[in-house]
UniProtKB/TrEMBL annotation:
InterPro entries: DUF4185
Organism from which the protein derives: Saccharopolyspora hordei
Protein name according to UniProt: DUF4185 domain-containing protein
Residue ranges of domain DUF4185 in the record: 9-321
Residue ranges of the region described as Disordered: 324-346
Domain of life: Bacteria
Length: 360
């Protein structure tokens, strides 16, 4: 993949009060705008300082995807200031638990309604619970649906989530833990019952066969982080941050229930060290994320990718990359660049940085 442009940072999103931010999971609103939801956001470049909020929403022009997303506005009552989309206070006590931040994992549009899945956290990797919020005004405002799950749901594998609507009326959701050391499980829920935790059912192996309604079984072992499942050109693409191998992979599937071990899979971006970066050649230091942009095709796949230099505290930004999706017959992905650490973007460093900057 090649870099298209930086999407956030000085000179790009200052007018929205966004200096440093990450993630940027994106969907089309019912009115056709791009809705991108970002994580921990600050007014200055980097992490820390004034204006801490999460999540925030920026709106984009869908006609600008090919050349690089152009932001047209932000969610919030104040004009051109991206306010926190959810009603809570950082470092407060909620339901008897200390909550430092709430992190978005994916957003989906079903009819005239948008749904946002988030993790309610106390620092990096420690998820108290997850929940779903609803917007009926194209992502301008968000309200809790009441759908919540404990952080240890399905053995802690229902924290980082991605979902997509199928033609059969079901929403399919892959998920993993927020520790970047777990595999993937699959669930589904009728599209009109997303807000009902009791309507979700697992894809699991029991009595010698895979079937719906079983407790979810790990469908792909590994050490995964951020995920993004989308239908593109009649295929199901699953983009995942493979933290164990320090890269971003894309799986090209017939269906979410396909055998993930046998599915076409290609590495589209490699992790590397800061002195060996080559954004034109798809080598990025401390990369994570990897969210498919609406309007992508198999031949022109666009991703929102994050980067955080935890030593210098900048860059801390979202970027747009473009390339092609893997096709059947692609060779299996390698293990990253020789000599590079086979891990994610310094998860322990991230945890220490968050503890230091967000404490108290």
């Amino acid at each position: 993949m090649r870099k298209v442009k930086d999407l956030t940072g000085p000179g790009i999103t200052d007018r929205f009060g966004v200096g440093g931010t990450d993630l940027g999971v994106t969907a089309l609103a019912p009115d056709g705008r791009l809705v991108s939801v970002f994580g921990d956001t600050f007014e200055r470049a980097g992490v820390g300082g004034p204006g801490w909020r999460s999540p925030v929403v920026l709106f984009g022009d869908p006609t600008t995807v090919r050349s690089g997303i152009r932001w047209t506005g932000s969610a919030g009552a104040r004009s051109h200031y991206a306010e926190q989309a959810l009603d809570y206070e950082h470092d407060s006590v909620v339901r008897g638990r200390r909550v430092s931040t709430t992190i978005p994992t994916d957003v989906i549009t079903i009819g005239d309604t948008m749904y946002l899945h988030v993790m309610v956290c106390e620092g990096i990797g420690n998820v108290h619970w997850t929940e779903v919020h609803r917007s009926t005004d194209n992502g301008e405002t968000w309200h809790p649906t009441g759908a919540t799950w404990p952080g240890d749901q399905h053995g802690g594998l229902f924290q980082v989530l991605t979902w997509e609507l199928g033609e059969d009326g079901y929403v399919y959701a892959f998920s993993t833990g927020f520790q970047r050391d777990k595999g993937l499980v699959l669930q589904r829920v009728p599209a009109d019952r997303v807000e009902d935790p009791g309507a979700w059912e697992g894809w699991g192996f029991r009595d010698g066969a895979w079937a719906w309604g079983n407790p979810p079984t790990i469908a792909l072992t590994g050490a995964f982080g951020e995920l993004c499942l989308r239908r593109v050109d009649g295929r199901w693409l699953l983009c995942c941050f493979d933290a164990g191998n320090y890269r971003i992979d894309v799986l090209n599937l017939d269906h979410p229930t396909s055998n993930l071990y046998e599915a076409t899979r290609g590495t589209v971006l490699h992790g590397t060290s800061w002195d060996r970066e080559d954004h034109g050649g798809g080598r990025i230091a401390q990369l994570y994320g990897g969210y498919i942009v609406p309007g992508s095709t198999l031949d022109d796949l666009h991703l929102v990718v994050s980067q955080w230099n935890t030593q210098r505290n900048w860059p801390y930004r979202a970027m747009q990359f473009a390339g092609s999706a893997p096709r059947p017959g692609c060779p299996p992905p390698g293990t990253g660049e020789p000599g590079e650490p086979r891990r994610g973007p310094g998860l322990l460093d991230l945890a220490r940085e968050v503890a230091r900057r967000f404490a108290g």
